[in-house]
Amino acid sequence: MDNRWVSTDSIREHFSQAMSAMYQQEVPQYGTLLRLVAEVNQQVLEQDPQLAQRLTQADELERISVERHGAIRVGTAAELNMLRQLFAIMGMYPVGYYDLSQASVPVHSTAFRPIDDRALRRNPFRLFTSLLRLELIDDLALRQQASEILAARDIFTPGCRQLVALHQQQGGFTSPQAQAFVSEALETFRWHQQTTVDRATWQALSQQHRLIADVVCFPGCHINHLTPRTLDIDRVQALMPQHGITPKAIIEGPPQRKVAILLRQTSFKALDEPVRFRDGQQGTHSARFGEIEQRGVALTHQGRALYDRLLTLAGSGSDNQQHQQHLAAVFAEFPDDEATLRQQQLAWFEYRRTAKGADHTITPASDIERLIADGLIAAEPIIYEDFLPVSAAGIFQSNLGSENQPRAQGHASREQFEQALGATVYDEIELYAQRERASRQRCGLL
Ligand code: OOG
Ligand code: NI
């Protein structure tokens, strides 16, 4: 790589800091949540020196304090396509396809995120990005109106467009260009009190689905939440009310376990925020909220199938404590120690030689279990970097009140999404498999 250019990692880091600073100003409760999460993380590390040591050894400790994901929603293929180009400059690529229409949310989504080990360790900033599916609006006149409103806006500043083009020509950014790019790109995600429509239009779109009004009626695609990573989601959930934050009822995802799997998430409700309509009328719009997450090991296809089956079996509840107990009972079937998860190929692991194993002869014929038992090889869980559609649907619904809006029944349309995006999405499971394979190779095991 040409070293005149600023690294993609550094642009992403800078951008994620700028987004966090902007969102703390826009939604002060997010700042409160960040402080609470930092406090709890520190307590967890103090109380569990083994975990602290493990995270340090895996070079994972530093990323936790900078780690967050956000979410945005766009209205057109052209917007999504341009976002892909913009995020590529920061080393963020589309991973995974999520169909939310099954849960009555008229969008499909991907996550833009870094994909290689080093970039993930440095700063794993991700953006869950949803594309509105206008074809799921059943009122044809309203559908037409929404698409006209969307066609008339440009969510990118002229400066941002110029810089993206410049990057594509020259293959990188100098430091001042990178700085200018971050501040221009930030504008796309800023909140606007001023809508682009009159009150009646906002209302008609809201009645179809609140999400549709949120995507269509504003001049940009405001960031709707940013989510720090906690090491103990149950504790943060319990402490939220003391800090003036009301969490949603249920923690989404798997139950608490000895070996955390996938992703557990909870959010606080969207705020009612004042908006001005184009006809001068005032109103309120609620879209922006806060969320926290706890991440565990990524699962293989078999592991994920088991997770999906047990989650469906468990169903949902309305009281968190009861729901968690019930989940824990149903998930008793899911092995909860690292050795079994590894041996049954339910989860992904990264292998490395320990100091003791540094000079040991290891070949593809060596017995991994033996090497691990002898302390020559260590196997670390690979953290899940992605999202869960059922959890995402729960988060959307708790913030949009869309439980009562069973309109958006559609079916997955990955090809259509990829066409809009202008690229295919990476298969997340294949990315984990590659990481595990590469780590075995480095050890001499392959
Ligand atoms: C995205 C909701 C999904 C998550 O963490 O699963 C999400 C949105 O509300 O736009 O962020
Ligand atoms: Ni989220």
Separation of the first and last Cα atoms: 29 Å
What's the CATH superfamily, by name? Uncharacterised protein PF07063, DUF1338
Number of strands: 11
> What's the arrangement of strands in the largest beta sheet?
2-3-4-1-5
Percent helix range: 40-55%
**Uncertain residue ranges:** none
- The topology string of helices and strands comes to HHHHEHEEHEHHHHHEHEEEEHHHEHEHHH
CATH architecture: Roll
pLDDT averaged residue by residue: 93
The small molecules bound here are: 2-oxoadipic acid, nickel (II) ion
What is the CATH class?
Alpha Beta
CATH topology descriptor = 2,3-Dihydroxybiphenyl 1,2-Dioxygenase, domain 1
Question: Which overall shape is indicated by the principal axes computed on the Cα atoms?
Answer: globular
Into how many domains do the coordinates divide?
1
